[in-house]
Amino acid sequence: MKSALVLGGTMFFGKRLVQLLIDRGVEVTIATRGKTEDSFGDVVKRISLDRTIKETIQQGLQGLNWDVVYDQTAYSPIEVKDVIDVLKGHVDQYIFTSTMAVYDHGLQRKEEDFISNNFNYELRERSQYIGISGYQEAKRACEAYLTRYSTVPVSFVRFPLVVGTDDYTNRLKVIVDRVKNNQEIHVYNLDLGLGFISSEKAAELLYWLGQTKQVGAWNGALDGYWTHRKLIEEIEEATGRGALVKEMEQPLPETTSPYAMAADWSVDAEKARLAGFKFGTIESVLRPLIEHYANND
């Protein structure tokens, strides 16, 4: 891989991906709306486009060539369609950042638990996909469209909850802060399992797929899973405070844990591990991160 287009690349693990590509000597172009500043300077090329406006995609990408495209920002099948239509014959691999939400709820879901080619969908704009169920349908539809119509090899990367000090959503920090401040936390069920991956490992997996030309569906996750109860216990240990946690059939929005799920949700990344990728354990990532939030405001 000598050149890569990153659709996105200025936030969270997309930013880590861009830096990793640069460090490995890849010529990088980032394509965004231009609303988020980055620190890459003149090391990267930049294209301004809006995924919801086809004309900007045509103007920005027409006639340009890359070895790999990393799609971090598609939230409707129309958006992937517009990109692959413009890049037909100009790219060798398309890597789509997907989510564990393509799977039905359950523990340690495997890649074969969702076959994208079997999913029926309609071409709809992102504004028509609402809430978690809409997000799930949108990502499934994106995978399905790429499976059926991409003229180049496609990789789908299905991530669980992504964590890191660079998580702009501050989801884990919110939970730690509530425990520190003796504020209530509401969940559906403390014993439901959750899957995680670090932003660092997410970026490394994306790079690895492009560098080794791996195609098809790939789960990316730290080994195993934690229950919400385990997460709270670790936070209590790090903060020295008891958590005010309540299980509720309908948690209140203002006090609901950002990680509150109505059922188990985690993925098994054995396929990638057997292919040589090492993720590490949840403990090795979450414990230091919880300590970081516990000891910093």
UniProtKB/TrEMBL annotation:
Residues 4-189 form the NAD-dependent epimerase/dehydratase domain. Pfam families: Epimerase. Its EC number is 5.1.3.2. It comes from Bacillus mesophilus. Its cofactor is NAD(+). PANTHER family: UDP-GLUCOSE 4-EPIMERASE (PTHR43725). It catalyses: UDP-alpha-D-glucose = UDP-alpha-D-galactose. Belongs to the NAD(P)-dependent epimerase/dehydratase family. The keyword Isomerase applies. Keywords: Carbohydrate metabolism, Galactose metabolism, Isomerase, NAD. Pathway: Carbohydrate metabolism; galactose metabolism. GO terms for cellular component: cytosol. This is UDP-glucose 4-epimerase.
